Amino acid sequence: MKKILTTLALGLTILASNTLKAEEKVCLDDPRLYTIGNVMNSIKAGEETLPLKLRAQTFLALTPEVRAILGDNILVFDANCTPYQVYNGKPPVKIEMPFELLTTYFKEALSRGDVISARASYQFFRAAPVSIHEAVGFTTKLNLSELEKKTLDALAVAPNVGYSYLTSTGSSNNPREHNSKCNSVRQPMNLLDLYALMGGRITGDKEFIIQTHGYSSTLVTKTRFIRGLEDTVFPKGNDTCWASNPQHTVGVLSALGASFKGWYTSSSIDKDWRAEFK
Predict the structure, then answer these.
(1) Same domain (yes/no): 120, 68
(2) DSSP codes of every residue in 252-266
(3) CA–CA distances in Å: residue 237 to residues 158, 165, 182
(4) How far apart are CA 278 and CA 276, in angstroms?
(5) Domain limits at 182?
(6) Predicted model pTM
(7) DSSP label of 128
(8) Do residues 69 and 170 both lie within one domain?
(9) Phi and psi, residue 125, nearest 5°
(10) pLDDT, tens only, 227-238
(11) I want to staple 118 with a disulfide (CB 3.0 to 4.6 A). Which of 43, 109, 215, 260 is the partner?
């Protein structure tokens, strides 16, 4: 019985130790955040004030007015709960965060016309790495309100990309004219552009191709191609233009660290690309 109790006690000690270690990774905002008015009044009065320790997402959620008053009286946690002293309004290094969280706070800033906070989300932080399968899923355009578009324009970070000409339709007697018309219409910023802006990068398997067939084009990564699966499709937008710009997507993915293996037609893909993976 004594042996059982000793073993149980040892097990509980290990469990408590592991729980404590796990809890050490959970960053908690400074409780003074909930009485932030008192803190700001102390700062305005010139009183010595200990810096507030804040999670990265909380720091991003601060309004410009609050951030301006707090000044450098802020410590920002990274993913490992290491606090970084803010200096001149920004952390000394870019702090890594999940892309979904960064996107949320970026869009919230856009929605209130807050250029300063929107800019902070990509100047002071960087998006965590993702697989190429996740990255190609970011080809979805950003759905923005008029105010959000106006704020984004003020940031001047959206890529100036036109649509591309759908050459495979065979319906054009003047490809140059159609290509000019397609490129004259600006493509809206998508999540992949935003991921690149936020310093993201691709990890793991990085090879992909573009397969053209009929009125659409398909981006296929190496792993999913072997399994007979597609990643994302660029459909026809109208009689002559893609609904998005595959060339631009190739360029962004390559800049993020992916390896583009070329354009393939349905007839050449099995012979050329599949042989490469045998």
Answers:
(1) yes
(2) HHHHTT-EEEEEEEH
(3) 21, 10, 10
(4) 6
(5) 156-190+197-276
(6) 0.76
(7) P
(8) no
(9) -135, 165
(10) 555 556 665 555
(11) 109
